[in-house]
Design a protein that fits this description.
Blueprint (H helix, E strand, L loop, with lengths): L11 H9 L3 H14 L4 H12 L4 H35 L1
Helix pairs in contact: 1-2, 2-3
Amino acid sequence: MESTQDKTFYTVTMARVYADQGRYEQAARIYRYLLDQTPDRSDLRQALEAVTSMLPASPGRWHDISGLIERWVRLMVRQNALRRLQQCRFKKQ
């Protein structure tokens, strides 16, 4: 999280809204920020634990991301090959 980010809406209510919407990463980010400000609040700690339990495990998430990156690279290679073929085709005509 960037330190220059506006934290005006970093409230318990906003974290709950994010959690209700299934946006658990954003909710966890807010709960962590609020816990940094008031570390003695057990309700925030419990809410953070509940939200983080809804997040997928990190290794699976990296696997999903790496698969997307591999697919993107393959598509870029195919697109470049298609462009070269089209350029060759237009040069011959």
